[in-house]
Amino acid sequence: MKHELLDLSPVMPVVVVDDADAAVGAARALLAGGIKVIELTLRTDVALAAIERVASAVPDIVVGAGTVTTAGQARQAADAGASFLVTPGCTERLLEAASSTGLPFLPGVSTVSEAMRLAEHGVSALKFFPAEPSGGVAYLKAIAGPLPSLRFCPTGGITPDNAPGYLALPTVACVGGSWLTPRDALSAKDFARIETLARKAAALR
Ligand code: 3PG
What EC number(s) does the entry state (predicted)? Predict the structure, then answer.
């Protein structure tokens, strides 16, 4: 994955969508709050349609597909217009499928060997997942010695309170989190609340 994508915003919003209209509203609200990227997770039936809608209706936000766990989903996400792919972990098939889309790819890792294996394939930007249960800031600090050229987007258990600790690490490009788009705000179409959360997140760095 091109590091520039990770540098777009200090926080990569991880969004679970139940409604494509709400996804468009959330994307606009994030952008208004200064967040230039959105990860729509393939956890619901409407996710692919939402990616398509956001990509065409909110062209100024970079929309990616998250929770990509199969080769088929990687292709579907690319066809829907995703600009990048995020996976919680990585397999050979997934790596092959993601590479064949030509899209920037942010695969999840939680161990040194997983990170080294992906580095052998030329992947140097990684999602550290699940960040907090896997050892958090202390773990990332410890592996920066042997793996200084890798960059991470820690995700999983990140909050506005612990995000600054991650963002202070030289190997952390941005953090990922679902707190910018609470499900109740999405279902109530409370986009003003999402914009406020986005503005605070954008100011984290
Ligand atoms: C993810 O899907 O990447 C994580 O589940 C997001 O984790 P969070 O809900 O703890 O932010």
Answer: 4.1.2.14
Q: Which residues contact 173 (CB under 8 A, 6 or more apart)?
A: 3, 6, 7, 125, 151, 152, 153
What is residue 67's DSSP assignment? -
Question: How many angstroms is it from 138 CA to the middle of ligand 1?
Answer: 19
Number of the ligand 1 atom closest to the C-alpha atom of 16: 2
- Lining ligand 1 with CB less than 6 A are 14, 41, 129, 155-158, 176-178
Q: Give the CATH number for residue 38.
A: 3.20.20.70
pTM recorded for the entire structure: 0.96
73-129 pLDDT, tens digit per residue, is 999 999 999 999 999 999 999 999 999 999 999 999 999 999 999 999 999 999 999
Residue 65 lies in a domain: yes
Determine which residue's CA is closest to atom 4 belonging to ligand 1. Answer: 156
How many structural domains comprise the chain?
A: 1
Distance (angstroms) between ligand 1 centre and the Cα of 10 equals 15
Token pair belonging to 149: 């050229």
Answer yes or no: is 205 within a domain.
Answer: no
**Catalytic machinery residues:** 39, 127
Ligand 1 center to 156 CA (angstroms): 4
Quick check: 66 pLDDT over 50?
Answer: yes
Residues 6+ away with beta carbon under 8 Å from 92: none
